[in-house]
Amino acid sequence: MRSVPIAPAPTPWAFPHHSTWDPDDDLVALGADLEAGTLVTAYAAGLFPMPVTLDGDEQLGWFSPVERGVLPLDGMRVPRSLRRSARDFEIRIDTAFDEVVAQCGRTDRPDGWITPDFKQAYGRLHRLGWAHSVEAWRDGRLAGGLYGVAVGGLFAGESMFHHERDASKVALLALVDLLQDQHAAHRVLDVQWQTPHLASLGVVSRPRAEYLEALERALRVPLPDALRMDD
């Protein structure tokens, strides 16, 4: 049997309406918390959290990039070498979520932002069925993977890692494949910001307003079967 995610307790926080957001600033709001209800509400509104330091004080920031990084499901660049590499890995879903987050949040990674509080928060979200990992395994070892949040037809990618060449790309390819169902035209695979590395994989930049319109459509779409919880 499959079921939808478990509804979290409602958030006591109210995020500002997108009509009030600064059109030139990725940072939309400060404060609130990382409880499951707050996170689900934020992602459904087009926001995601990251810690920010302002005037020497670390705070919880909520972002909606003016130019949003999105990977079109029919736009991932998959060279033949990557298809060959994919045959060397076993793909698993949600079998090592905490380990994937831990690897993504290693302190030796540059520009690390996944604090213990974030790890705990996404662990709670995972246990409720909202956060998921896509993992590339080889020879019984976790070689790479990614994690993110799924709300209806939105998959908001948070971070990925690899211990072996191409392992994280193979996990991303697997995610794209599992999102390719009868609702694929309305699904959104969000990666926050376009970087040169992500652009090489096919990630494009979309204006905030365009992203929010696509998000509204995506939220009406059910989760793909592979991301539904087992009863």
TrEMBL record:
Catalytic activity, EC: 2.3.2.6
Keywords of the record: Acyltransferase, Cytoplasm, Transferase
Matches recorded under Gene3D superfamilies: Leucyl/phenylalanyl-tRNA-protein transferase, C-terminal domain, Leucyl/phenylalanyl-tRNA-protein transferase, N-terminal domain
UniProt GO MF annotations: transferase activity
Oxidoreductase is among the record's keywords: no
Principal subcellular localization: cytoplasm
Catalytic function, reaction form: N-terminal L-lysyl-[protein] + L-leucyl-tRNA(Leu) = N-terminal L-leucyl-L-lysyl-[protein] + tRNA(Leu) + H(+); L-phenylalanyl-tRNA(Phe) + an N-terminal L-alpha-aminoacyl-[protein] = an N-terminal L-phenylalanyl-L-alpha-aminoacyl-[protein] + tRNA(Phe); N-terminal L-arginyl-[protein] + L-leucyl-tRNA(Leu) = N-terminal L-leucyl-L-arginyl-[protein] + tRNA(Leu) + H(+)
Pfam families on file: Leu_Phe_trans
Membrane-traversing stretches: none
Cell compartment(s), UniProt: Cytoplasm
Family of the protein in this entry: Belongs to the L/F-transferase family.
Job description of the protein: Functions in the N-end rule pathway of protein degradation where it conjugates Leu, Phe and, less efficiently, Met from aminoacyl-tRNAs to the N-termini of proteins containing an N-terminal arginine or lysine.
Entry protein name: Leucyl/phenylalanyl-tRNA--protein transferase
Organism: Nocardioides furvisabuli
